[in-house]
Specification:
Layout (H helix, E strand, L loop, with lengths): L6 H19 L6 H21 L5 E3 L4 E3 L1 H25 L5 H20 L3 H19 L5 H32 L4 H7 L5 H19 L7 H8 L2 H7 L2 H15 L9 H20 L5 H21 L6 H25 L12 H4 L1 H15 L5 H15 L3 H25 L12 H19 L1 H8 L2
Antiparallel strand pairs: 1-2
């Protein structure tokens, strides 16, 4: 046992517990102290991750949890995302009666995402899945209004099925593999019945794909993104994806690698359908939050391209770099949405460049960043995962991903167009904290793209 190996996770859990107790006794005007506590935990967790970054990979707590490059990169990405989400929450939640509860739920969902990425045992994976899911159900309906309640109900009902299927899959794999540890399963499934392995693996994969927002478990994403508060939508479309995508990669390349099922091809097909459906659905969206929701689905498809490449030299580094770039860029796009609470439709952004020129510039940079325009971080991530897929013999998938990338320009330009031309028809009352977050993320998206070399050196093989 080495508790210090889990210091970032312990900091998140400790901040959640202490924040809950602290928020129960603080007056409403002092609830912001819980957010400060969360911020300190995130900064300390990032520092603790940096300290152990170059140490050798280790399996701790009976081999159930792995601390390696993928886990460390997930820690940093999730902690950075939480800091940005807290920045978006300052305006709408300042002085709110349940401000502390919001922060605690964010920390718990972030902890679940990190544990998903590092889980090296099916039982821990199932527990992490629940920890990453349940706080988000509460956050979806946090506003207690009609849209939020509907979003939370849909989210919960759609998540109930994967929540049951995942433990069932774990039970099947335990039965045919004789253990729940990834190391044991990697050698125990090669002689197992093909049908049983397929059923168990698909069941576990279904839960992870639901968490990632991939087809066919994607239906909740647009409804929750539109119905929940914008800051919750930003969280839901970012943080759980990080842990889930890394968990899928670890699952198909470690315990399932020796099984008689071609998991890479299955993920490749899911990636193709996910990116295509996400882009096609986004074409017709006028509500900016639904547009970003379908954009999120398409981005998950691109990420799964790297996952399908398996153990290639550039596959995992590309996915990790892409996740960092996507998290910063997607949260930045939602920061613009949070900064302009009165602008619900893309046409409401007409004339933004005349009233808020720097916010308009940030929006353009962030949306073009989601397309994958150089020199942004998403461009670097896409380039790496596409190259990894080519090396893995998935040329058809790369061609389809490239076509989808070009097609996605259309719906992003439908939003950019009104923002950079015409006279304003909406009163642009801005949230200053969200506006600053948009500026920071726009700059960070470009900076990460420029610094791809040093970042890749950290996450590379």
């Amino acid at each position: 046992m080495d508790p210090l190996a889990l210091l970032p996770e312990i900091l998140l859990a400790g901040a959640a517990v202490v924040g809950l107790l602290l928020g129960s006794h603080l007056p409403r005007r002092r609830q912001w102290l819980v957010a400060v506590l969360a911020l300190v935990a995130c900064v300390a967790g990032t520092g603790a991750t940096a300290v152990v970054w170059f140490r050798a990979d280790m399996a701790v707590f009976g081999g159930s949890y792995v601390v390696d490059v993928a886990t460390n990169a997930t820690r940093v990405t999730v902690l950075v995302a939480v800091v940005l989400v807290l920045g978006l929450a300052v305006g709408p939640l300042r002085g709110a009666r349940r401000e502390a509860e919001f922060v605690v739920l964010v920390l718990l969902s972030a902890l679940g995402a990190v544990l998903l990425a590092g889980a090296d045992d099916l039982l821990l994976l199932a527990a992490s899945y629940l920890l990453a899911s349940i706080p988000l159900y509460a956050l979806a309906g946090f506003a207690k209004d009609a849209p939020g309640t509907e979003a939370a109900l849909k989210f919960y009902l759609m998540g109930a099925l994967p929540g049951v299927v995942v433990p069932a899959g774990v039970a099947v794999l335990l039965g045919v593999g004789g253990t729940t540890g990834y190391a044991g399963l990697s050698g125990g499934l090669d002689a197992a019945p093909r049908a049983a392995v397929a059923v168990g693996g698909v069941a576990v994969l279904a839960g992870l794909l639901f968490k990632a927002g991939a087809v066919p478990a994607h239906f909740w994403v647009p409804d929750v993104t539109e119905g929940a508060r914008p800051v919750v939508a930003a969280l839901v479309t970012t943080v759980p994806k990080i842990g889930a995508v890394v968990a899928v990669h670890r699952f198909i390349t470690t315990p399932m690698a020796s099984s008689p099922v071609d998991w890479g091809m299955l993920v490749a097909v899911i990636a193709a359908v996910t990116m295509t459906l996400g882009n096609l659905a986004a074409f017709f969206q006028d509500n900016v939050r639904r547009l970003l929701a379908y954009s999120t689905i398409s981005q998950v498809g691109y990420l799964l391209v790297g996952v399908a490449a398996g153990r290639g030299d550039l596959a995992l580094p590309g996915v990790l770099l892409y996740l960092l770039g996507y998290a910063v860029t997607n949260l930045g796009a939602f920061a613009v949405v949070c900064a302009l609470p009165a602008a619900a439709l893309r046409t409401d952004y007409r004339g933004l460049v005349r009233r808020r020129p720097w916010l308009a510039v940030s929006l353009v940079v962030l949306l073009l960043g989601l397309v994958g325009t150089p020199p942004t971080a998403v461009f670097a991530g896409k380039l790496l995962v596409f190259t990894a897929a080519l090396d893995a013999g998935l040329g058809w998938l790369v061609v389809l991903a490239a076509v989808n990338t070009v097609a996605s320009v259309f719906y992003y330009l439908r939003w950019i167009g009104p923002a950079v031309r015409g006279d304003a028809t909406t009163r642009f009352t801005t949230d200053r904290w969200a506006e600053v977050t948009a500026y920071v993320t726009a700059g960070a998206s470009v900076l990460l793209g420029v610094l791809t070399g040093p970042v890749l050196a950290l996450v590379g093989p």
